[in-house]
Design a protein that fits this description.
The complex is a heterodimer of chains A (1102) and B (391). Chain A is of the alpha/beta class and 1102 residues long. Chain A is globular. Helices cover 37% and strands 19% of the residues of chain A. Chain B has 391 residues and is of the alpha/beta class. In chain B, the strands form 3 sheets. In chain B, strands 10, 11, 12, 13, 14, 15, 16, 17, 18, 19 and 20 form an 11-stranded mixed β-sheet that branches. In chain B, strands 1-2-8-6-4-3-9 form a 7-stranded mixed β-barrel. In chain B, helix 8 (249-260) packs across helix 9 (270-279). The longest helix of chain B is centred in the middle third of the chain and has 12 residues, at 249-260. Chain B starts with 16 loop residues before the first strand and ends in an 11-residue tail after the last helix. The chains are: A alpha/beta (1102), B alpha/beta (391). Chains A and B meet through strand 11, helix 9, helix 15 and helix 16 of A and helix 3 and strand 15 of B.
């Protein structure tokens, strides 16, 4: 039965900004779905507030709305576009929740929009704990297998306390209903834990509901990815086994595909349960993910949960197997059945089968605890990782070692040098799951732990434990062997040891190991991911390396360009860089090159097998990249390697690749060095006559102190060669400087620390530009809303700049050109300026694609990354203008006067983290980037655009109610005007004594509330923290002094996070918010598609 | 909680060299696995990611050297429950990365030990994907595995491989079948009696029937029509088994007798090929066969797709596009493999008989096709062949 003919247009909802638990995988799935639907001849309408996505590229959908994903805005889009159907299963929990809200509000019925891919009843059965328990019971009655953990549903704290008794005491698991990524869940070991976790869970759950559950800590954990079509054909796409047993969120676990330690009988029981569950829940078409716990002692199976939608795990499963779940889910949603859909990889067999793997896949999570030093790094059932890397090998150890080195993080790889620690201590440490527990386990093994001891401490399955012992034994052989024989070297390589690890063990440099290896002819081969374990010939060149015999890379004739991706998502290096890589691939394929993508991040569009001509799913280390370059040079002509689009990861490899004779296209490594190395960059600026803030570089405290004394405090201190402001701080005095250097000793061992004058009260400006050696194309100028000192990645910004005039743009253009030319850029450059006292300072320049490229591209309707890729390979800006890739005339600095305003807002992961005492972490912004994602708001005027950005990022700005104001002294003189405006807009102001005085002197009425530190008043007057917890405050404005934050502010801000009240921490943001609220008050806020936006800008350009 | 103790001590296994040589001369070098020595057979690959114990003990693999495409084999050890017959039948075993410890609460010993105990010669550490691709492109062929004292120069070894018998024309089911009849009692209330011809039957097959109230009389491969009717059966079942169906003339004759008497008939795998021959269709050898547990088969009577367990190197040659007239009335192809359109099931329209080429008993493999046993029950309960749709 072919596709339905009654659906002509479909609305797809994306997942919004990247947050922990909902990341780039939904760009991957959404992009696949939109492409499929479009190719089926449907009109695709898309809404996603996240500009850094491929899915929001104007050519992916027919009408693309970069608007907040809230029921209000989606209704506006529905009213305007009148789609026949809504597909809610590809945009994570955000899309699903929005669809449910629209259904409940009657919007879908009102506009006659059909929900496809899942119905509301199925969503509820899958997501509602109590209903799902009923599902599992029904399944058990039918097939005799599967049960739920014993549990109770609670709607109040009283329920919760009684519930524990019913379950027979602590520990218990708390799980709030309808939250994504397990937000708000955790283990309670006593009543205090319980009150805290359940209290927050009740608040987080949109249905004020939490579930208490018996503890199944330490059981084996599995996941199945299933798909079902309208004829009730069901296939299991992939099984996944967690290396970390129950107790760690699967997003934070090391996971392995396929399942490694199940007999067929046990596996088939899981499969039977999975199929029965998907039928019972009633997911008619599409994918779902089901999680199981298996008791290692007797095989008892508990069904933990199911997601009736495409999930993070399904993205992983798609990459792991080559079976494109999202693409197929979209086809099923419009009426196809599995047997009617061809398997893309084989082209000759249908999708109604179950992929079989002849390799092992390992995924490892990447954490960012270093960004949140006060956060508790213990892994629990709440997801805390910010990204992941995946690797494939022909055995588990090979895949594991590759995955660990893909993390690209100091200490992530196993090491066998240095003293072994104390066994008992290490085993005790390994009891608690944390980032890097696997390394602790390996250390314990080195220190003499037995397999039984490791199992006792960790409950990691004995088979996995033995694989770690195998690695340790090979390391031992390497260390003991008199000579590094070809057999031993091959043996180590077959188990994934890197040249660097082997070198470390043998006391050799990695390049020496590599030379020896090459001399012996020991090189990896590349195998194909083909869904069928070689049963049928594969047509899709999706490769992974392995030290095996036969390679499958086919010869080619077209010149190839290798694009190095950005590796696992992390704070500071996220989906934005993947966006640029994907664009390069598209542009270069169009220009006649064969594109070869290298990346190890399963969440991305770049690692989709049909994005590039060839895909290598490989770690981005020098060794791995050199082998790919070699393989591709064997296969045919190689035009070069692009390193400037994937962020710091490929940039860091540039020089070494060039030194090894690899042709780097575009900006050369020497130029990159020129921009990174402060002294050299200083000379570039001096030659161009451009001012930079006073600065110096220091290798020691004495040097740093001397520089700081000369410049005057406060100073901005940071390590060189880092991204995302890692380790960057504003230092206010000498003592803080000393402690800064102590804390960051690890980051500045190889490279100096940079000390800059901190420009107080400066306007920060970001510029993205293209340079081809002769001509500059100013991509866009962004004015930050927060002042200099807040990391640009965490700051909101506006494009076109809202307060800069033609003279400023002219200065920016001249400076940018001077720097691009001085550094030697061929492609993209991003420069940060600060405008202070009418002097334009250069803060830093990065000769690569920046985080803002997708935003700038969308705001100005020009594909900058595509142009950069072409320039890298020799095209000139003039040629690209002629071709139409760039506008014929003008650029991002000469936008038409009526150009809509785009606002970018950062999204921060505060609600994810708790300190060890279980309290929230502080939300103050600083020079170190901590945001995970971003949203974009577009409208004709700044206020509305800003309001949209807030609605997209955190929830809508309030239009009435109570505003609490408490600002630092230096902000008090800027407070009066926005405060007065709020009162005029009908808000009631609450303030602490000091701020209230300032307001009253300005003639603004404000109610004084008690500080947290003052405690409750004699007549029961509530403190501000209590008021926030009671939901009596609608907006909070609280600016801190310094980065430490006094305790009061900390309590206020963490209360705001846990109760979801908008909280602004800069006075500039307050000003913007007032404009936004004012815009909301003034009436109807419209929606505009990117296609309309582009038409508007382009008509202005003509 | 106590540790499920690893069933074998971890020892650094000595790497004993082994060689695998295909009849076309392609050679792979690795380490001995299981028993040391030499073995010959037809090289075939199995793509299942689970269920090696069931695969190894499946009599249909008699005289075949099985290459596992899944690289990590032996992880769950060997237990006392999952055997599909009394012994390991494969002639040789080829894996990439064997487990060093077994981890499963039911495991009793390691796979390595079990192979060695039963004298099964294997090889590990070779590029099993390269070997699989070779077999896919060139077709299943003879192979030898050599280790220990059996090692010699490649030419000598190749000569020995070329002397080994071929699978085409091999009459093997008597070698694996029971010699004495036995009865598998019905579980719960007995509803039917079935005479099951053992051509290499797997333990799960009578089990699946017994679960449905069938008392199964398992008879030797050479049982006559009189033997079959001596148990007074409500239905007759022909099992899976090894070898070339073109050699099974005796069983074809017995099948014709059953069809003539209109006793409900159900065949699996080899049993399907015999029904095909009994109806007058030919059989042929597939290039490299279907061996795995992920094969999409469409039930053409319902249009539904089931994911199924396969182990067959031969297939029935029957037209897909029309109903065929046979001496026993009209017959249609009821099931087809969606990967390659191979005939996977036959349905007689005028005689109470049907069969499938794949394994509804599914051990190892998915349980999607278990409804076929219900069809058999319906057939014995007197339902007309055409309306016995599955669950």
């Amino acid at each position: 039965m072919p596709k339905r003919t009654d659906i002509k247009s479909v609305l797809v909802i994306g997942s919004g900004p990247i947050v922990i638990g909902q990341a780039a995988e939904f760009d991957y799935s959404g992009t696949q779905a939109c492409r499929v639907l479009k190719s089926e001849g449907l009109r695709v309408v898309l809404v996603n507030s996240n500009p850094a996505t491929i899915m929001t590229d104007p050519e992916i959908a027919d009408a693309t709305y970069v608007e907040p994903i809230t029921p209000e805005f989606v209704e506006k889009i529905i009213a305007k576009e009148r789609p026949d159907a809504l597909l809610p299963t590809l945009g994570g929990q955000t899309a699903l929740n929005t669809a449910i809200s629209l259904h409940k509000a009657g919007t879908l019925e009102k506009y006659n929009v059909e929900l496809i891919g899942a119905d509301v009843e199925a969503i509820n059965k899958g997501e509602d704990r109590d209903l799902f328990k009923g599902v599992v019971e029904a399944v058990n009655a039918k097939i005799g297998h599967g049960e739920s953990a014993r549990s109770v549903i609670c709607h109040s704290m009283d329920d919760v306390l009684k519930g524990v008794e019913t379950l027979g005491g602590y520990p218990v698991v708390v799980r709030p209903s309808f939250t994504m990524g397990g937000a708000g869940s955790g283990f309670a070991h006593d009543e205090e834990d319980l009150r805290r976790i359940a209290g927050q869970g009740l608040a987080l759950s949109p249905t004020t509901e939490v579930l208490l559950e018996e503890s199944i800590l330490g059981w084996k954990e599995y996941e199945l990815e299933l798909m079902r079509d309208k004829h009730d054909n069901v296939v299991v796409v992939c099984s996944i086994e967690n290396f970390d047993p129950m107790g760690v969120h699967t997003g934070d676990s090391i996971t392995v595909a396929p399942a490694m330690t199940l007999t067929d009988r046990e596996y088939q029981i899981l499969r039977d349960i999975g199929i029965a569950v998907i039928r019972e829940v009633g997911v008619d078409t599409g994918g779902c993910n089901i999680q199981f716990a298996v008791n290692p002692e007797d095989g008892r199976v508990i069904v933990i949960e199911m997601n009736p939608r495409v999930s993070r795990s399904s993205a992983l499963a798609s990459k792991a197997t080559g079976f494109p779940i999202a693409k197929i889910a979209a086809k099923l949603a419009v009426g196809y059945t599995l047997d009617e859909i061809p398997n893309d990889i084989t082209e000759q067999t249908p999708a109604s089968f179950e992929p079989t793997l002849d390799y092992v896949v390992v995924k490892v999570p990447r954490f960012a605890f270093e960004k949140f030093p006060s956060a508790d790094a213990t892994l629990t059932t709440t997801m805390k990782s910010v990204g992941e890397a995946m690797a494939m090998g022909r055995n588990f150890p090979e895949a594991l070692n590759k995955a660990l080195r893909s993390l690209e993080k100091k200490g992530s790889q196993f090491t066998w040098t240095g003293p072994t620690g104390d066994k008992a201590e290490l085993l005790a440490k390994a009891v608690v799951p944390t980032d890097g527990r696997i390394n602790t386990v390996m250390e314990a093994i080195r220190a003499g732990a037995t397999p039984e001891e490791v199992f006792e401490s960790t409950k990691i399955d004995p088979w996995f434990v033995d694989q770690l012992f195998l690695l340790d034994e090979i390391a031992g052989e390497l260390a003991e062997a008199e000579k590094l024989t070809p057999e031993l070297l091959r043996h180590a390589k077959r188990h994934g040891f890197s040249d660097q690890q082997i070198g470390e063990i043998r006391g050799l440099r990695p390049d020496v190991v590599r030379e020896v290896r090459h001399a012996l002819g020991i090189r990896p081969v590349f195998k194909t991911v083909d869904t069928c374990a070689a049963e049928f010939a594969a047509r899709t060149p999706y490769f992974y390396s392995s030290y095996d015999e036969e390679t499958e890379v086919a010869p080619r004739t077209k010149p190839a360009v290798i694009i190095l991706g950005s590796g696992p998502n992390r704070i500071g290096q996220g989906i934005e860089f993947d966006y640029s890589c994907v664009h390069a691939s598209f542009a270069l394929a169009e220009a006649g090159y064969e594109t070869v993508m290298v990346n190890c991040n399963p969440e991305t569009v770049s690692t989709d097998y049909d994005t590039s001509d060839r895909l290598y799913f490989e770690p981005l280390t020098l060794e791995d990249v050199l082998e790919i370059v070699h393989a591709e040079q064997q296969a045919g002509p190689l035009a070069g390697v692009i390193v400037q689009l994937g962020g710091q990861t490929p940039l860091g490899l540039a020089q070494a690749l060039k030194d090894n004779g690899v042709p780097i296209v575009g900006t050369q490594p020497e130029a990159i060095d020129l921009a990174e190395e402060r002294g050299a960059f200083g000379r570039v600026l001096r030659d161009a006559g451009l001012p930079a803030p006073k600065h110096g570089t220091a290798f020691s405290f004495d040097e740093a102190k001397a520089i700081a004394d000369e410049i005057g405090y406060p100073v901005l201190a940071r390590p060189s060669y880092v991204l995302g402001g890692r380790g960057m701080e504003i230092v206010y005095d000498e003592a803080s400087l000393a402690s800064y250097l102590e804390r960051h000793a690890g980051l500045i061992s190889d490279h100096p620390v940079l000390i800059d004058r901190f420009l107080d009260d400066a306007v920060e400006i970001d510029v993205d530009a293209l340079y081809d050696g002769t001509e500059l194309y100013l991509g866009g100028v962004m004015e930050h809303i927060e002042e200099a000192g807040i990391h640009s990645g965490d700051s909101a910004c506006a494009l076109p700049p809202i307060t800069l005039g033609g003279y400023d743009i002219k200065r920016l253009r001249t400076s940018t050109e001077a720097i691009a030319s001085g550094v030697g850029v061929r492609g993209l450059i991003n420069i940060q300026f600060a405008l202070a006292g009418d002097i334009l300072y250069v803060l830093e320049a990065n000769p690569r694609a920046s985080r803002t490229v997708p935003f700038t591209s969308k705001a100005t309707a020009v594909p900058l990354a595509k142009a950069a890729a072409r320039i890298s390979l020799g095209a000139t800006i003039a040629e690209l203008r002629q071709e139409g890739l760039l506008p014929a005339e003008g650029d991002g600095g000469t936008l038409p006067a009526d150009c809509p305003i785009s606002v970018k807002e950062a999204v921060l992961p505060w609600s994810r983290f708790r300190d060890v005492a279980g309290r929230g972490v502080d939300t103050v912004l600083g020079p170190e980037m901590r945001s995970t994602g971003e949203v974009m708001g577009i409208d004709r005027v700044f206020g509305t655009a800003y309001a949209k950005s807030q609605a997209g990022a955190y929830g809508a700005l309030p239009t009435k109610g109570k505003v609490f104001v408490s600002v630092a002294n230096r902000d008090k003189r800027n407070l009066v005007f926005p405060a007065r405006a709020l009162v005029e807009l009908g808000f009631e102001l609450l303030a602490t004594t000091g701020t209230a005085e300032v307001l009253q002197r300005g003639g603004i009425p404000a109610t004084v509330v008690r500080k947290h530190s003052e405690g409750e008043g004699p007549n029961g007057e509530k403190t501000i923290v209590q008021l926030i917890h009671e939901g009596a405050v609608d907006l909070i404005i609280n600016t801190p002094y310094g980065t430490g934050g006094r305790l009061d502010g900390y309590e206020i801000r963490t209360a705001a996070v846990s109760r979801g009240v908008p909280c602004l921490t800069t006075v500039q943001a307050m000003g913007a918010a007032v404009q936004g609220i004012d815009a909301l008050h003034r009436g109807d806020v419209g929606v505009m598609s990117l296609q309309e936006h582009a038409a508007l800008i382009n008509s202005g350009r003509k | 909680m106590t540790a499920p103790a690893p069933t074998t001590p971890r020892t650094r296994r000595e790497r004993v060299p082994a060689v695998l040589i295909l009849e076309d001369g392609r050679t792979f070098r690795g380490q001995a696995y299981g028993a040391v020595g030499e073995t010959f057979g037809e090289a075939v690959f199995n793509t299942g990611m689970s269920g090696y114990q069931e695969t190894l003990t499946d009599p249909s693999y008699h005289r075949q050297v099985v290459v596992m495409t899944a690289p990590q084999i032996g992880n769950t050890g060997w237990n006392d429950e999952d055997d599909e017959s009394k012994q390991i039948w494969v002639a040789g075993y080829v894996v990439r990365d064997p487990a060093r410890v077994a981890s499963n609460w039911r495991s009793r010993r390691s796979l390595d030990e079990e192979l060695a105990n039963q004298g099964v010669v294997g090889i590990s550490g070779i590029d099993t994907r390269a070997l699989t691709r070779h077999l896919r492109e060139r077709g299943a062929m003879r192979v030898g595995i050599f280790s220990g004292e059996a090692l010699a120069d490649e030419q000598t070894l190749l000569g020995r491989v070329l002397q080994a018998p071929e699978m085409k024309g091999a009459d093997l089911c008597a070698e694996v079948a029971t010699t004495e009849p036995y009865v598998v009692p019905a579980i719960g209330e007995k509803k039917f009696t079935v005479a099951a011809l053992d051509l290499g039957i797997k333990a799960m097959t009578p089990q699946r029937m017994a679960e449905r109230g069938i008392e199964v009389h398992v008879l030797p491969a050479g049982a006559t029509l009189d033997d079959v009717y001596a148990v007074n059966p409500d239905g007759v079942f022909f099992s899976n088994g090894p070898g070339d169906p073109a050699t099974a003339d005796h069983q074809v004759e017995v099948a014709r007798g059953v069809l003539a008497r209109k006793t409900p008939f159900f065949g699996i795998c080899f049993g399907n090929q015999i029904l095909g021959r009994a109806l007058g269709f030919g059989t042929y050898k597939l290039k490299y066969g279907h061996r795995g547990i992920n094969q999409p088969v469409q039930d053409r009577t319902t249009g539904k797709v089931e994911v199924t367990a396969h182990n067959h190197g031969f297939a029935v040659n029957a037209p897909l596009d029309k109903v065929s007239d046979t001496p026993f009335g009209r017959v249609e192809v009821s099931h087809v493999c969606l990967n390659d359109d191979v005939v996977e099931g036959l349905q007689c329209l005028d005689t109470p008989a049907f069969s499938v080429q794949y394994h509804p008993e599914a051990a190892a493999g998915p349980h999607d096709a278990a409804y076929l046993f219900d069809r058999f029950v319906h057939l014995m309960a007197g339902a007309p062949a055409r309306t016995t749709a599955g669950s």
